[in-house]
Amino acid sequence: MLTICDSIKQHISDFKIGVLTYEHIVVGPSPSMLKGKLRQFQELLYFDMEQTPLAEWPEVKEWRSIFKQMGTDPSRYRPSSESLLRRVQKQTFIPSIHSAADVNNFFSLYYKLPIGIYDRDHLIGDIVVTIGTQTDEYIGINDRTTNFERKLVSKDAKGAFGSPVVDSKRTMVTEQTTHAIQIVYFPPSFTETQCEQMLQAMKEMFIQIHGGTAHTQLVK
């Protein structure tokens, strides 16, 4: 079960989170179709950025505004979707990692949203998305320790594990993962219908590649 803390609602009343839970999946090297899709889309984005500066993209502007409202400096701590886009802008294209990470990165770039994917067997109890305090920190998948004071953060019974900034090593998905949960951070400008359609598209592509079963939920 996932809930959004009231502290977030005080800043952004229409904040929404998409949750996709996956059972009995098989994670492995990405099929060539997915690798090609990820590479091709990054090349298209690169040309788009040559026409319109990244700072002017509506999704980038909105996420920077959300971070500011939460008390996070978006120039120091960028939304993960913007970090991915900046890599593309520098032509440091995101390489293939494994099938689950590649699907996650593809949709993060496609929808220009922060999306996290986690190994459910490494999560304990319910999940709450909140604004972090001084005690919330973890080692990220980038091998750096990040403190989540005044930042959006997802927590389980063991503590902080995920964020629109960077995710933790503790709960990261590997090729051994068989049960996963994906968290999609939607900005207020997205309608419920848009959110539901996006979750359905993500679910279908993920299951097509990984097998298993999936369930989607929009949390408000």
Distance between the termini: 13 Å
Number of strands: 10
Order of strands across the widest beta sheet?
Answer: 1-4-7-8
Strand content: 15-25%
Shape: globular
- Determine Rg (CA atoms, Å): 16 Å
Oligomer: single chain
Q: What percent of residues adopt helix (DSSP H or I)?
A: 25-40%
Query: How many helices does DSSP assign?
Result: 6
Structure description:
- With 220 residues, the protein is α+β, with helices and mostly antiparallel strands.
- Helices cover 37% and strands 23% of the residues.
- It is built from six helices and ten strands.
- It has helices at residues 6-11, 32-51, 58-70, 80-89, 99-111, 192-210, and strands spanning 2-4, 16-23, 115-119, 127-131, 137-139, 145-147, 152-156, 159-162, 180-186, 213-219.
- The strands form three sheets. A four-stranded mixed beta sheet has the order 1-4-7-8. Strands 3-9-2-10 form a four-stranded antiparallel beta sheet, with helices on one face. A two-stranded antiparallel ribbon has the order 5-6.
- Helix 2 packs parallel to helix 5 (99-111) and helix 5 (99-111) runs antiparallel to helix 6.
